Amino acid sequence: MSDFKRENSKKTYSLKTIIILLVCMVVLIALSCTSILVAYDNAKTTRISLEDKVWTIATSFARSPVVIEGLTNENTRERLQEYTLEVQSETNVEYIVVMDMDRIRLTHPTFDQVGKKFVGNDEGLAFEGETYTSTAEGTLGESLRAFIPVFDETTREQIGVVSVGILTAHINEAVYRSQFMVLLGGFFGLIPGIIGAVFLASKVKKSMQNLEPVEIAQLLETREAILSSVQEGILAIDSSGKIILVNEAATKMLQKAGLDKSPLYQDVAEFIPEFNLHDVLKKDRIERNQQVTLNELELGSKSSACRFKWSTYGSDGNISGQD
């Protein structure tokens, strides 16, 4: 009783459901792998793009006459702060800081920080004339920052450093936005895959006469049992004239006539031309009570063409021995 319950408790899925699930799984895996790779590449590209942005802004800003004058003339510091805030607003960066050679901030988005030393401990190389980008914790939070030395155009001596930064949190937001769009595209790409899977499953099921594999297996077993129990010989060919079905009775009759070679997949016109099955197929007709002599063995036959979906598929013949 328990075995019976276990067998009935096993959930079975139809062929259509299995095809849909398998196709959707393949599409999902393919889209997921592609989306992950594209998202990773987008994230990398976004970070590089933002890094190039702060680098370009810092380089251009460090060469500005307003910056150079602000570092050499204390009377222009107020104008320098105003100019810095204007550029910062237009370029949408988090901050632009101008430092003198004592590492004192001459500009800052927060006015209270002006006149104080730069925070981050990553600015040292910039005061040695090097240009680079760095990620460090500052007064506004962790940021990606570019450091560009500022030189006096006349003496070519270094007079300060410009630092332009974007908060890491904002960089991550930009990365997440780009990744979200990629994943969203992957999701919408899955919809045609599901539609295609349903269409494919329907076509496959329709081509199988809406039968399940188990039902087809049962039909084949039933067919074999019927063919084996029939006393008359049964032989069928496909549309190309190849023999595709021979029951046991037909095999014995052919062997009795001296044809010991297996008839399956033989060309009927060459193997047993006496039965004219190929002509029956071409002319789409029925031939009853035909007397055929096969190697001096008298046989009676009946032949007819078989139709499937409004087209001639093949023909079959019934063979009976004559006493």
TrEMBL record:
Keywords: ATP-binding, Cell membrane, Kinase, Membrane, Nucleotide-binding, Phosphoprotein, Transferase, Transmembrane, Transmembrane helix, Two-component regulatory system. It is a multi-pass membrane protein. It is found in: Cell membrane. PROSITE patterns: PAS, PROKAR_LIPOPROTEIN. Its main location: membrane. The keyword Nucleotide-binding applies. Gene3D superfamilies: PAS domain. InterPro entries: PAS, PAS-like_dom_sf, PAS_fold, sCache_3, Sensor-like_sf. This is PAS domain-containing protein. It comes from Alkalicoccobacillus plakortidis.
